[in-house]
Amino acid sequence: MVMSQSISVGDLASFLLYTAYVGGSLGGLTSFYSEVMKGIGAGSRLFELLDRPSAIPLDSGEILKDARGRIQFHNVDFAYPTRPKTAIFKDMNLIIDPGTVVAVVGQSGSGKSTVGSLLLRFYDPIRGTITINDTDIKKLNLHWWRRQIGLVSQEPVLFAGTIAENIAYGANDDTEVSLEDVQNAARKANCENFILSFPDGYDTFVGERGISLSGGQKQRIAIARALLKDPTILILDEATSALDAESEALVQDALETLMRGRTVFTIAHRMSTIRSADVIACLDQGRVAEMGTYEELMKKEEGVFKKLMEHQRVEAEWMEDEELTEHRDREPQEQEDRPFFKGYGI
Ligand SMILES: Nc1ncnc2c1ncn2[C@@H]1O[C@H](COP(=O)(O)OP(=O)(O)OP(=O)(O)O)[C@@H](O)[C@H]1O
C-alpha cells in the first residue's frame, strides 16, 4: 500500500506501533483476569476466617480487680485438637506464686510451650482447671485476661511498619501511646542505641520489605513491646539460638528490667535463667515431675531434673568438641550462659 501510495510511510509506522501496543495490552488483560481470580479466591478464604466465630468467647466473662495472685493448674489433661490421641498433659499440677519466677524445663516436646498456650487460653484443657486466685480462667473475659499477660516469644514477629509502630503495638491501646512512651520502653529494653544508629531512627521501616534486624535486636524490640504493655504476668520463651556475647548480655539485661515485680513463667533454655529462677518445674511424662530450687533438685540423686542436666552437659561437651575453634577460648561464665544443645530445649 505504501508502494502504491495509498498510505504514507508515517501511517505504516504508526500502524505497526499501535499493533504492538494493542497486542501487548490484550495479552496483559488475560494475565490481569487470572490475577483477579486468584485474588478473589484468596480473599474469600480470608473472609471465611474473619467471619468464623471464635470457639472461645472473647468479650463476655468476669473482669477481676487485678491479675495478681496464685496461678494454679489443677489436674490438667490436654491433647491438641488435631492430635486428640497424643496426650501432652495427664493430671498435670503446677503452682505459680505471685511475683515469682518459675522456670519450666523438660526435654524437647515435653510441653513447655504448651503450658504457655494454655495460660493464654489459645486452648482449653480437656479436663481439670487453670485458676488465678481460685477463679477459673475460663470464667474470665478473654480480652481482659490477655491484656494482663505479656509474651516474649522465641522468634518475635515484626510487622511491616516503623520501629515505633512495632513497639507501640504492644500497648493495650496503641492510640494512646506517645512517642515518648515508645522511647522510654526502647531505652529500658536496650534498643535505643541501635535504633538511633539508623538514619530514620524510630521511623525506620522494618518487617516485610523493611530492613532486617538481627535476632538479638528483634528480641529487644519484643521486650520493649512487653514493657509498654506493663503486664502483671509475663511468659518468656527463651531463644534457643545463640546470640553473640554482647547482644546476649544486652538481651539478658533488658529481660531483667522487664521481669522486675512481675509473675514470670519462663521456658528456660539457659543455665543462668534456670539457676536464678525462684522455682524450677521439671516436666516429664505429661506432668510436673519435680518442683524446687536448682540446689534442691540437684540434690535428688535419681531425680529427673538432675538426669536432664547431666544429659545436657554431655551433649554440650560433645558440641564443644565439634566446634573446636571459637568457643574454646571463652570464659567459663559465657559458656555457661550459652543455650544448651537445641534439641533438648533446656
Ligand atoms: N499446634 C499443635 N498441634 C498439634 N501438636 C502440637 C502443636 N503444638 C505442639 N504440638 C506437639 O505437642 C508436643 C509438645 O510441644 P511443645 O511445643 O509444648 O514442647 P516444648 O517442650 O516446648 O518443646 P521445645 O523445647 O522443642 O520447644 C510436641 O510433641 C509437639 O509436636
Automatic annotation (TrEMBL):
GO biological process: oligopeptide export from mitochondrion
Principal cellular location given in the protein's record: mitochondrion
Compositionally biased intervals (Basic and acidic residues): 325-340
GO terms of molecular function: ABC-type oligopeptide transporter activity; ATP binding; ATP hydrolysis activity
Top-rank lineage group of the source organism: Eukaryota
The ABC transmembrane type-1 domain, residue ranges: 1-38
Classification via SUPFAM superfamilies: ABC transporter transmembrane region (SSF90123), P-loop containing nucleoside triphosphate hydrolases (SSF52540)
Intracellular or extracellular location(s): Mitochondrion inner membrane
One GO cellular component term: mitochondrial inner membrane
Record's bilayer topology term: Multi-pass membrane protein
Region (Disordered): 319-346
InterPro entries: AAA+_ATPase (IPR003593), ABC1_TM_dom (IPR011527), ABC1_TM_sf (IPR036640), ABC_transporter-like_ATP-bd (IPR003439), ABC_transporter-like_CS (IPR017871), P-loop_NTPase (IPR027417), Type_1_exporter (IPR039421)
Keywords: ATP-binding, Membrane, Nucleotide-binding, Transmembrane, Transmembrane helix, Transport
Pfam families in the cross-refs: ABC_tran
Domain ABC transporter per the UniProt entry, residue ranges: 71-310
Protein known as: ABC transporter domain-containing protein
Organism in which the protein naturally occurs: Bifiguratus adelaidae
